[in-house]
Amino acid sequence: MKGTSVLWLLWLISLLCGSTNQAHLIVSPSSSQLFEGDLLSLSCEGEDSPAGWTVRRNTPKRQRSRCGDGWGKQVGSSCTITYIFRRDSGVYWCECGEGITSNTINITVTGGPVILQSPVLPVMEGDSITLLCKAKSTPSNLPAVFYKDGSFIRTESTGHMTIPDVSMSDEGLYKCHISNHGESPPSWITVTGKPTTTAPPSILAPPSTSTLSSASTLLSVSTPMTTPIQSTAMASPSATALPTDSAPPTVSIHLPLVLRVVCHLVVFCPYVITTVLMVSLYRQRPSATAPHPHPEQKLTEDFDVMEVTIEHHF
Fold first, then answer.
1. CA 151, CA 44: separation in Å to the nearest integer?
2. Residue 215: pLDDT over 60
3. Largest CA distance in the chain
4. What's the predicted TM-score (pTM) here?
5. In DSSP terms, which residues pair with 90 in a beta bridge?
6. Which band of pLDDT confidence, cut at 50, 70 and 90, is reported for residue 297?
7. What is the DSSP string of 115-176?
8. How far is it, in rounded angstroms, from Cα 51 to Cα 45?
């Protein structure tokens, strides 16, 4: 019974995670680099309420540690680190149940004087991004030099560098330098291609009754002459043409709904099979012989049988 309760609990947790859309990890401030001592907020967000999602991370010292387990404070599906240290550098993500994860975000915490604020998520082709070279000791923007893969790009007087109409060639390792302050750690910027859209398949309606009757009449015509039926069909193409107004409107297939149903089936089927097997094993156990309701009467009946047997032998 205890094992069955655990299975039902795991099934409910998996169903709760699967019933919501895929969650995404959002960080604030939206930067892959932070100064030591900054505040970092991480939250699991989605179209539905991301109940059951927790924030986890991988660092050089610990793997798959959960928010609240020695670092950060978990409230609902959000995690807050009020004072971030260099040891907090690592990979962060959202997780629900066992193996259901969101996107990952790399966070670098530096004790140096300069950081490069860059997008934490991949950039799509055609979009524009802005990089900010920021010094810790000076709140105002200073002139900065930007580099990509170790090569000089250009100098910006305000510390901002905008890349319009991003392409795959813009993917790489970026860093910046502010005179009399220092250089930032490098940050990798990922560029993804635009998603390709395909027209959903259409569902054709079955031929109408008039079309079927025309086709059956055409097939039932006797041909005593040597002219084949195919020539008759070619002579009257209008008799077999499908009416243009009988086709229904195009029906689009909702892929997320299909994936959700498949996910529910994959999660639900093992527990149903396990429950059926447990019930079957329980029913097949040998049952103990029920005791006689009146032991004295049973003993008297046994003696009577013995006497009858003895008399029969004599």
1. 37
2. no
3. 129
4. 0.59
5. 107
6. low
7. EEE--SSPEETT--EEEEEEESS--S---EEEEETTEEEEEETTSEEEE-S--GGG-EEEEE
8. 10
CB atoms inside a 10 Å sphere around CB 301: 12
Q: What is the pLDDT of residue 194?
A: 84
DSSP helix/strand/coil, 192:
strand
CB 22 within 8 A of CB 46: yes
Q: Alpha carbon of 161 to those of 38, 144, 151, 228: distances in Å?
A: 23, 9, 15, 77
State both tokens at 289: 């012989």
- How much is the pLDDT for 96? 87
Q: Return the SS3 of 292.
A: coil
Band (280; pLDDT cuts 50, 70, 90): confident
Q: pLDDT by residue (tens digit) across 114-149?
A: 999 999 999 999 999 999 999 998 877 899 999 999
* DSSP characters over 78-104: EEEESS--GGG-EEEEEEETTTEEEEE
Amino acid (one-letter) located at 77:
S
Q: Parallel, antiparallel, or unpaired: how do β-strands 90-96 and 100-110 relate?
A: antiparallel
Q: How far apart are CA 266 and CA 301, in angstroms?
A: 60
Q: Residue 174 pLDDT > 70, yes or no?
A: yes
Instruction: Tell me the two tokens of residue 157.
Output: 């007087």
Backbone angles phi, psi at 51, to 5 degrees: -70, 140
Amino acid sitting at position 82: T
Measured at the alpha carbon of residue 241, what is the angle toward residues 235 and 246, in degrees to the nearest 5? 165
